[in-house]
UniProtKB/TrEMBL annotation:
It comes from the Bacteria. This is ROK family protein. Belongs to the ROK (NagC/XylR) family. InterPro entries: ATPase_NBD, ROK. Pfam families: ROK (PF00480). The lineage of its organism: Bacteria, Pseudomonadati, Verrucomicrobiota, Verrucomicrobiia, Verrucomicrobiales.
Length: 339
């Protein structure tokens, strides 16, 4: 057993799939990403069986035994503290209040680290930037607006209760045409997520298409659902459609505005933009809109050093980890903790 090489597994539990990777003691990924169904709504035991299946496939692909796995990093799509789920999110009822980390560690006999999916993705982006030694703030628009902060040295900042970096729920002062602050899915009004998320995109598309001047827009033709229309919006924006471009331009500006307040608090030096927008053909334009909002709100010192005008104090980059980022982050952390 002592002579066995060491391997570390990263497991990213999503609402529909578990994405997983395995790395060796040098931090090198062995084999390809493995995906299995997550079955999270069927309870944590059903998901544990899927995690076991993922590990079996990873070790088989790597040509090693399960006994060679010395640590597991596990992330969940819900708030948690010290391995215990605090909120249901899209999970089954029995997840809440359960020591998921402890139970899976007992099941496998392998040390387990657990965090939420935003922290995991941030750790993955950090791990993939081998020459970056400072902090990293990840902002990831998706169904909601998530994020995570990695401190110098590669540890995520989670707060006293594991509830830090709920970036989607900082307040922004932007209002709808009727003067009202938009309702967020969390129950509050005026959150950044109420403007920058897939859910927000559906609302904005519906409001814009209801205007008389957009009655003849192609998205108003036929009987497609608002979800389908929002999904098609990226294609329209890529073609320069004014309605679609206007919606994404507003979204990008508000995202940059919100990031400026986060930078004022954390001063990370590097901001990484993730989520599906990192894959779009108009992402360079979208980054320009983010920077417009950032410059509108940020103090000059968060743009360039007052001592050296050539030095940029806050770098912006697109995410590079893709769908595997969170799993990579968990494997990286397991290696750091358990090697």
């Amino acid at each position: 057993m002592a002579d066995l090489p060491s391997y570390f597994v990263g497991l990213d539990i999503g609402g529909t799939t578990v994405k997983s990777v395995i790395v060796n003691s040098n931090g090198e990924q062995v084999g390809d990403l493995v995906e299995v169904r997550s079955h999270v709504k069927n309870g944590y035991e059903a998901t544990f069986a899927q995690l076991d299946s993922a590990i079996d496939q990873l070790t088989a692909n790597a040509g090693v035994t399960k006994e060679a796995v010395r640590g597991i990093g596990l992330d969940v799509p819900a708030p948690s503290s010290d391995g215990v789920i605090w909120g249901r999110a899209n999970l089954g009822d029995d997840w809440v209040g359960t020591d998921i980390r402890g139970k899976y560690m007992e099941r496998t006999g392998i040390p387990v680290f657990m965090t939420n999916d935003g922290n995991a993705a941030a750790l993955g982006e950090y791990a993939l930037r081998l020459k970056h030694l400072g902090s990293l703030l990840l902002i990831a628009p998706g169904t909601g607006l998530g994020g995570g902060l990695v401190l110098p040295g590669g540890r995520s900042y989670e707060g006293a209760n594991g509830l830090a970096l709920e970036v989607g729920h900082i307040s922004v002062p932007f209002r709808e045409d009727d003067g009202e602050l938009p309702q967020c899915s969390c129950g509050l009004k005026g959150c950044a997520e109420a403007w920058v998320s897939l859910v927000a995109l559906r609302r904005r598309v519906g409001l814009e298409l209801a205007k008389p001047e957009n009655a003849d827009h192609p998205l108003n033709q036929g009987d497609t659902t608002i979800e389908e229309k929002a999904f098609q919006l990226r294609d329209y924006a890529a073609k320069g459609d004014p309605l679609a471009v206007g919606i994404f331009k507003q979204q990008g500006f508000i995202l940059g505005y919100a990031i400026a307040d986060l930078v004022r608090v954390f001063d990370p030096g590097l901001v990484v933009i993730g989520g599906g927008l990192a894959e779009t053909s108009f992402r360079d334009l979208y980054m320009e809109w983010i920077m417009d909002g950032f410059k509108d709100r940020a103090w000059p010192v968060y743009l360039r050093s007052p001592l050296d005008p050539e030095k940029i104090t806050t770098q912006f980059q697109w995410a590079i980890g893709g769908d595997a980022a969170a799993a990579v982050g968990m494997a990286y952390t397991a290696r750091e903790l358990f090697q």
